[in-house]
User: What shape does this take?
Amino acid sequence: MKAVAHIPRTRRAVALISGGLDSMLAARVMQDQGLHVEGLNFFTGFCVEGHTHAIRSNPNRKPRRNNALWVAEQLGIPLHIVDVIEEYKSVLLRPRHGYGANLNPCLDCKTFMVGKALEWMQAHDFDFIITGEVLGQRPMSQRRDTFPVVARESGANERLLRPLCAQLQPPTLPEREGWVDREQLYGFSGRTRKPQIALARQLGIEDYAQPAGGCCFLTDAAYSRKLRDLWQNRAERDYELDDIMLLKVGRHLRPKPHLKVIVARDAGETRYLRGYRKRFTYLDMTSHNGPLTFVEGERDDADVELAARIAARFGQGREAKSVSFQFVSRDGIERELQVAPFTVDEVLGEWYL
Amino acid sequence: MSAHQLDATGLLCPLPVIRTQDRVATLRQGDVLSVHCTDPGALLDIPAWCRIHGHELLSTQESEEEVLICIRVRK
Assistant: This one.
């Protein structure tokens, strides 16, 4: 009877792919060790990645690519994009570890994503999870004392490997079992990007997304201010996808505590906002080219007139004596309205959210 | 083999890609899916997703109102 040769199974790693350089390098390092790698990308609704900026008109600009898809294509790996909008609410609304400088619950967010990756790993018969994290690069989730928190609270424990800084951490299961050669991993730390850029060059990676101040709108002070305002004025901390998308679009002003005005910044935003008209009272400029404007919380004609005078400031009739609007209330009642545009000084800076 | 429609209008990327991915998972080899979008970014992203996963891009059309992307499922 012939002996059957035992052929070891190719180990399978699932990589969190953000679209940035670090996760690209982490995945590539694993591929170079002969592992099978597939990518996961989570869409929370707050991701800067994607085409939120495509809403705005700019005929000279090419549409933005989705960098996570682009990275996966460059690496030659499948990428699975997962909608976690609903599940993410509990992360943002009740973060166990609190927020960073703005409404960014980075530690809870990373724990959540690694936990979701673990579910995916188990469902698809993969062996471990990799991320592009670098020790000390982010002040909340990428610290020596918080790395173990993510591993423990996500449930991934020793099946979470961070190839770019693994040599600064205790060996994980993939290293101890010999699935991965620890000597070929890295010991990057700190906020400098030089080691990653040098490694990219060494691996022949010349094109990659430039760091753009984080991958999440929740790290942005202006966005967080608008989200806080939304919660305060609804008297509940909750949101739907449409709410958080609209916070990315237009100028948001609150000229009175109960009154909010959203003015599109260009034709692209006006086109986008038109899709939401049935949810809002709105002002459509008729005498001049101008932005679509949503009005929230109006109590009387004076509020409507105030909103219209603000909106008129941002249309082509800003220097005219009078600007006309079609006013349509949420319940569909229409009427014409003429107002004198505010001067630039009359739109107070403190109104802007 | 059958033809299917997916309405992803009003959604910003990556949601049209996610809806496409999830729908394709329910289809069979050779089925054709026509994805209707309003985000022009889908013209880059859905073809990229097809290339990554080995599905065949049959056509793309862009009008003022809509982007239409047709793909053939390969499994």
In short: The radius of gyration of chain A is 25 Å. Chain A has two domains: 12-217, 249-351. Residues 106-123 of chain A form the longest helix (18 residues).
